Amino acid sequence: MTTLGPLSVRLPASRATRRRPWARLALFPAWGLVLPAAALSAIGLLLVWSATRNEPGSTLLQRQALSVGIGFALLWAVSRIDLRMLRAYVPVLYLLGLAGLVAVLTPLGRTINGSHAWIVLGDGLQFQPSEFAKAATVLAIATALGEPRDGERRPGAGAVLLALGLAAVPVGLIALQPDYGTAIVFLVLATGMIVVSGAPKRWFAAFAAAGAAGLLLVWRLDLIRPYQLQRLMVLADPDADPMGMGYNATQARIAIGSGGLLGKGLFHGEQTAGHFVPEQHTDFIFTVAGEELGFLGAACVILLMLALLWRGLWIAAKSPSPFGTAVAGGVVCWLAFQTFVNVGMTMGLLPVAGLPLPFVSYGGSATISSLAAVGLLAAVNRLTRTPA
Q: Is residue 264 in some structural domain?
């Protein structure tokens, strides 16, 4: 193998490879990552189809299929990049990510579903810069944590503070939208990366104290908007306002519960067909899985995600470089947290946060960025020089 810039180029197959045609499958590395991502994307297309099939003239399925295609093309391209060369371009990628977040706050930005988090370029063409800023921030934090000073085996105070500063800038910009759910994703992935990098344990006590102080400050300054406070109250008692703020959570639980063990069958969900659950093709796509595929189908979605995350943790543990470990750890924390929150809010265990289910929910920006993140895991996996 040789490298040209950040891209790696595979030389002609060896004699042993030519004797084993199946070895050519290495063209698409890390099948332990690709197969779960592909299965989840396929399930997502079916669920989006079911959730939107009764909408006249809807092109949501076609758009999601296009996003999945672009996402897998990007997955492959990113997986072929030599991360050791990519590190030279991380500052540029990070600044581009911040530029997108700043652009949202200008007249280019648009408010959709209560958050001024989108840029609309034309009829039906829109994207969410915060989704693409996630990967850029992961790479930036990994660069800060993945370069211990001489004589150090783990990041020092300076590296940890730099990592926190790199996370704080996008968090602040996203909080201005306001999109607190996405802002928390950045905080979680930054904290997870600091953990897997082996930072001293005293930092975690500082994080807990800072988090408590932050919550107190938000409460004292009345930074929580009324509808966000109502969401917390609904979590404590969903039946207190079943036709108001508790409507989403109530209908979601009804839809999932009505599926039983085996579900009502794909395209046969009465709740789904009646559109009783708002945003059922995006943030609440898991309700479609629960109603039409039942407990077993919904559990299959979760198990596929767990398989991908487990593989990501294995890659983080086996990476020969601190940079690769931090990148893999950040991606795993990102995808795991979003899955946990999305499934939890759908089942009424967590407040509604507006986070999509990775690979499954409708949304071009989220789908493409999640698949690109899998490409980063595959790129880290290549550095281990072990079979995928």
A: yes
Whole-Å CA distances, 362 to 50, 248, 382 = 12, 18, 30
Q: Which residues contact 39 (CB under 8 A, 6 or more apart)?
A: 304
CA distance 375 to 334: 14
pLDDT digits (tens, 9 = 90+) for 145-175: 887 655 566 777 788 889 999 999 999 999 8
Range of the structural domain that residue 186 is part of: 31-51+59-385
pTM reported for the whole predicted model: 0.85
In a domain, 321, yes or no: yes
What is the rounded distance in angstroms from the CA atom of residue 261 to the CA atom of residue 284? Answer: 19
Tokens coding 75: 């997955």
Q: Please count the other Cβ atoms lying within 10 Å of the Cβ belonging to residue 63.
A: 17
How many structural domains is the chain composed of? 1
Angle between helices 129-145 and 322-346 (to 10 degrees): 140
Q: Nearest CA to 136 among 179, 172, 166?
A: 166
Cα dihedral across residues 212, 129, 68, 312: positive or negative: negative
- Maximum distance among all Cα pairs of the chain, rounded to whole angstroms: 70
Q: What is the dihedral of CA 170, 174, 180, 181, to 10 degrees?
A: -70
Note whether 189 and 330 are within 8 A (CB): yes
Q: How far is CA 23 from CA 136, 302, 338, 387, in A?
A: 32, 30, 34, 10
Question: Whose structure tokens read 């020089």?
Answer: 385
pLDDT tens, position by position, 192-245 = 999 888 877 777 777 677 767 766 766 666 666 665 556 666 666 666 656 666
Residue 23 lies in a domain: no
Burial of 222 (0-12, 13-18, 19+ CB in 10 A): exposed
**H-state helical runs in the chain:** 15-19, 31-52, 60-79, 83-86, 90-104, 129-145, 157-175, 180-196, 202-220, 226-236, 247-258, 270-273, 285-288, 294-318, 322-346, 364-383
Cis peptide before 178 (omega within 30 of 0): yes
Which residue shows structure tokens 């789904």?
272
Q: Does residue 167 lie within any of the structural domains?
A: yes
Residues 359, 370: contact at Cβ < 8 Å?
A: yes
Please answer whether residues 239 and 251 qualify as being in contact, where contact means their C-beta atoms are separated by less than 8 angstroms.
no
